[in-house]
């Protein structure tokens, strides 16, 4: 059991917590993969040899340090590979590490529902269940040729291997995610373009506040519109310049929405994703000499200070731009 999958139970609004907690993991191993917004994978093979402790013992130390330094508890799954560590995390509880040893892999997987396997979506799971393959034990026992007929040659082979405990994944060291997302679901399928625009305004305001809290800017914005029939449309547009300015994000979001030309579309949810994140200090800002723009930026600075002092709900995102 050399791979840990850690989910930190930090306050959901504290977007700056993950980088600090990743730095804590990097004190034990440089092989850390961020899983935003609140998780990470850590490969402890080298750490076990260096510290002379098992992965489970190191997991206990990580939990104690996270609590002592940041007041954050964590849930940890451990396994011989990333896939198994992630699946073990589902059964983990705060204060304890759920470990799957090499000799327990087949037994652990056999009773799991097929949808619990990473990479198996609802459509694939539905197809498998229609043929009685509703657990990973049954999938593992099914002939490879049967799985390939049901889900395709490559997907069938990968499914067969994973259901039999073959975990070819690896932990890929990375920085905190190069994107941030904000989604606005509607309580019912929404036809009103005015409500669509208000959802965009709110989501863009949230992204701007989160970017500024992280001292980041983004290079592009992606809009995803999900419809009542479960289909979706996704469009991406590069920003004129890297920014974390809510008004600029809102203007781009509106442009993406208008370009779709929706006519009486029944929209179930709208999501925005800020992509291509970079440190704010490395970004240049084109001076516009626009008093309205400068006023909005000053208002944002005041709102950001209020959030930092009184919490994220002190100023609701999306109320500073029109």
Q: Can you put this structure into words, describing what you see?
A:
The chain is of the alpha+beta class and 322 residues long. The protein has 12 helices and 10 strands. It has a 5-stranded mixed β-sheet. Strands 6, 7, 8, 9 and 10 form a 5-stranded antiparallel β-sheet that branches. Strand 4 (74-79), helix 4 and strand 5 form a beta-alpha-beta unit. The model has no long low-confidence stretch (mean pLDDT 84).
**SSE run:** EHEEHHEHEHHHHHEHEEHEEH
Strand content: 15-25%
The overall average pLDDT, rounded, is 84
Extended strand count: 10
| Radius of gyration, in angstroms, nearest whole number | 23 Å
- Helicity range: 40-55%
Structural class: alpha+beta
Sheet of most strands = 5 strands, mixed
Widest β-sheet, arrangement of strands:
2-3-1-4-5
Helix tally equals 12
Q: Give start-end ranges of low-pLDDT stretches.
A: none
CA-CA gap between termini = 53 Å
State the shape.
flat
Condensed summary:
The protein is built from twelve helices and ten strands. It is of the alpha+beta class.
Please render the helix and strand layout as text.
Blueprint: E1 3-8, H1 17-25, E2 32-35, E3 39-43, H2 45-51, H3 55-70, E4 74-79, H4 82-90, E5 97-99, H5 105-110, H6 122-130, H7 136-141, H8 144-151, H9 153-163, E6 179-190, H10 193-213, E7 216-227, E8 232-243, H11 246-260, E9 267-275, E10 278-279, H12 291-310
Helix pairs in contact: 8-9, 10-11
List keywords for this structure.
flat; alpha+beta; five-stranded mixed beta sheet; 322 residues; 12 helices
